[in-house]
Amino acid sequence: MKDVAARAGVGLKTVSRVVNGEAGVSSDTERRVREAITALGFRRNDSARVLRKGTTASIGLVVEDLADPFYSPLSRAVEEVARAHGALLINGSSAEDPERERELALALCARRVDGLVIVPASDDHRYLAPEIAAGVATVFLDRPPGRIEADMVLSDSFEGARSGVAHLIAHGHRRIGFIGDRPGIHTAKERLRGYRAAMAEAGLPVSESWVALGPTGSDRVRTDAARMLDGSGGAAPVTAVFSGNNRVTVTLVRVLAEPEWRGRPVALVGFDDFELADLLSPPVTVIAQDPADLGRSAAELLFRRLDGAEEPPRTLSRPTKLVARGSGEIPPPD
Amino acid sequence: MKDVAARAGVGLKTVSRVVNGEAGVSSDTERRVREAITALGFRRNDSARVLRKGTTASIGLVVEDLADPFYSPLSRAVEEVARAHGALLINGSSAEDPERERELALALCARRVDGLVIVPASDDHRYLAPEIAAGVATVFLDRPPGRIEADMVLSDSFEGARSGVAHLIAHGHRRIGFIGDRPGIHTAKERLRGYRAAMAEAGLPVSESWVALGPTGSDRVRTDAARMLDGSGGAAPVTAVFSGNNRVTVTLVRVLAEPEWRGRPVALVGFDDFELADLLSPPVTVIAQDPADLGRSAAELLFRRLDGAEEPPRTLSRPTKLVARGSGEIPPPD
DNA sequence: GTGAAAGCGCTAACAA
DNA sequence: TTGTTAGCGCTTTCAC
To answer: Candidates 3.40.50.2300, 3.10.100.10, 3.40.1010.20, 3.40.50.720; correct CATH number of A157-290?
Structure first.
């Protein structure tokens, strides 16, 4: 910038004004400055600007896995809102590792992002308290923060799961399995709670061998599914399964498509919608969340905070929607 | 940092040494400094560090759409490589808009990212020449740069498409349609070239009404597909379709599942693999690329440049793989 | 082993 | 309309 000023024969501040489109520069000087900028290939160094202004026009996003079809539209939605506010998005995947979430979040804070959207992997966010106190707006998404108060945007996991299981019950099922994500994860617990509530409302007993929480890798899901389906867990075989998220659902679709179960169609309702669910045979009934809407809501709340909204922490709950397509309407064999 | 120094009763530089793990601090002073850091909730301001050191330990990634199932694993792979090198990832979507690509890329440069991975939407990247000259390592991914020389990592689109169309020909098809992305996009052109090459090799004529390039939105694809399939374009109806990318394939799967075509199964081979392709009926035969591998290769090349590799610009071509699943092996009705 | 001073490139505040 | 000065928070240099 100094070089530009020298070349244009003006003061530093004049160049700054031109670069930032501030008023108070005669069109002639402006032209000279612009010429010098082009000639020198000058581009403002935003690091210096950040240092001086104390604001970075960037926000951070921490999700579980950027490549997951649930998180990728969510990230894109956050990006669009950021863009509308002139901010860039720095994002990273925690890989469901609390330590990695922490590292990422703190690295983002060290870069002085203006705000942070976090899908937590950890259940203790006290490490963020100093940052939040120092002014980093923070919104938790999909899962609540642990041991601190903060804004959050959640899907109604409990009600979604409850209605999905009630749907299976309404179609005549009495023995229903639940396969969900790891038990430490808030949404997994809430969805399981919804399952239990629906069963209890209908006066149906739940065998503990029908309930399986754990990693969403396909091996674990296959094992648990097989146990429920063939009755080797000790209780009678289930006639329907409720799946806790899109990763589990995809594995279950594969399991249920295998020859051994083909003769005895098993009903399936999955939490989360996914692409092509309607073209499978049978098409898959789901409890749909809108990941883009979740991302957008969280980002908008974040920018409202950055614009100075000073209310106490808020919780936004987003509804889910049952999409009946076929797999959830298969009756039990009687 | 000044406050920490004051509180610990040491000099500024000593705090800096502790924070950065440099040698030359007695363990006693180190302890005092660490206490002050915790007490004050101090976190190094990386903007200042960047300003001083001239390097940001962050890289930028510009893709078409972060939410697209082709780009999201690619982004994740770039992120993992960045993480392994201690760098953060700033990324954005160009939405296939050259102006937006330019804005994003220049904004990233203004933040002084150390390097840039770009999936180009534009066909003229001369705007990046000053940045590259100024030391921003740049790798183009999936499509080559326009009007400048730079590193690039590409899939072998030509050979992939050629082999896919040859596969259809080997299964007896003589009238084959091609539906691809917009004609300005390099991969679309290459894949079309592959299609023409395979047809020519087999001595088959190509009616121009069998070829359709354009936006990947479902309306356009539906219209073009219907024209080829019912012969309303003037030429005889096609018995097979080759699809130029995963968005087009998904729409075609929907079109071909509709009642009007059910009676006359149409063969389909798609460029790009996608989740659940194997569970559709019929399962979809694809030319698979490995998006994660593309991302990883590009990022690794980028970091090799950042580590000082000084060779002239390189082009890496990644192979594709035909995955036969059923839809591409449907014979023509004779 | 430790610290003081200079300066990275920019913008805010104030002069002219 | 334009320029000058100070300083954002850190690291580098060099002296102690």
So the answer is: 3.40.50.2300
